[in-house]
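INTERNAL AUDIT FORM
Audit reference: QA-55
Scope: verify that the stored structure record matches its stored sequence.
Auditor: D.O.
Record contents follow.
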Amino acid sequence: MRRWLTAGALAGLVATVALAAVTPARAAEVYHCVVDGTPTFQDYPCDGERQSVDVGNNLSTVGSPEPRFDLAEQHRKREEQARLKAELARERARVHDLRDKAEESKFDQARAQGVVIPGMTEGDARLIYGRPDRSGRDGTCTVLKWHRPYHWVKICRNEVVQSYY
């Protein structure tokens, strides 16, 4: 059976713990200040005052108080976030509208040239090229063909996905 702590290591551990328990804590300088009429204690000199207080070995530390948030500042920040969010939504809608207009312009140009392009509907293809000479299925899509002049269009879910002319 292995012994995890040898007698020497155990003696050293006991000596370290005993020494830590006997060594007195070092007294720190504590400064008593009055800030805005409120008495405070701090570990650095006060502004303009150099009065330290002897607290002896009875010093205990307490965490700093939670920061107090200004409700008006929180409300202002929330309103600013809401304003920025609304502005972003308006900008996204404007960009979307511009894309739609550019896309519609592209379709208008193709219609004016008498050409069917991807993104158009089956109705657009029939309007531009007329009644197809042949139609068939290619899996789940429809293929329309015209012989004079030769054109064919592949339509999936009522949208042109391929066009050859």
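Auditor finding: record pair retrieved intact. The mean pLDDT is 78.
Action required: none
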